[in-house]
């Protein structure tokens, strides 16, 4: 029960794998996407690889760039948005363990749907089969031809 005398909601979340997200963002700054062709990117022309950036100690590949997911789990306190704040990391971990039923990865969405169907059958009954039936058409909804 929460402070209002009502049951707490069931928290679930779906995130990108943190390192994959950082790599994607790093290259997006340099090459953009296929949706806004011709848009000048802030790092356009910087052709160093992510590995080269790491070797040179570059800012764009600093692991603090991965911090962006911590505030989602930490909360709205000011310290939650401070990269590297130990208290924010501690609060985010506590919330994950104590408040979330499950957190899945985009890269493993099928697994998340299977887990949700088992944990919350009244709500997700049939979701896994439906998701599987979408097969390639699921991705075509979100990624037009040529963008995969």
UniProtKB/TrEMBL annotation:
It comes from the Eukaryota. It is a single-pass type II membrane protein. The keyword Ribonucleoprotein does not apply. The keyword Transferase applies. InterPro entries: Heparan_SO4_2-O-STrfase, P-loop_NTPase. SUPFAM superfamilies: P-loop containing nucleoside triphosphate hydrolases. It is found in: Golgi apparatus membrane. One of its GO terms (molecular function) is heparan sulfate 2-sulfotransferase activity. Keywords: Glycoprotein, Golgi apparatus, Membrane, Signal-anchor, Transferase, Transmembrane, Transmembrane helix. Its main location: Golgi. GO terms for cellular component: Golgi membrane. This is Sulfotransferase.
């Amino acid at each position: 029960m929460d402070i209002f005398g009502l049951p707490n909601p069931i928290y679930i979340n779906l995130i990108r794998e943190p390192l994959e997200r950082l790599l994607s963002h790093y290259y997006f700054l340099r090459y953009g996407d296929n949706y806004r062709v011709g848009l000048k990117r802030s790092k356009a022309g910087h052709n160093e690889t992510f590995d080269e950036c790491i070797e040179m100690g570059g800012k764009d590949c600093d692991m603090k760039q991965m911090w962006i997911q911590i505030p989602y789990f930490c909360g709205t306190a000011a310290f939650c948005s401070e990269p590297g704040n130990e208290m924010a990391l501690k609060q985010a971990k506590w919330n994950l363990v104590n408040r979330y039923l499950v957190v899945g990865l985009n890269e493993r969405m099928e697994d998340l749907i299977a887990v949700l169907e088992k944990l919350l059958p009244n709500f997700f009954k049939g979701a896994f089969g439906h998701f599987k039936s979408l097969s390639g058409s699921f991705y075509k909804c979100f990624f037009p031809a040529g963008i995969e």
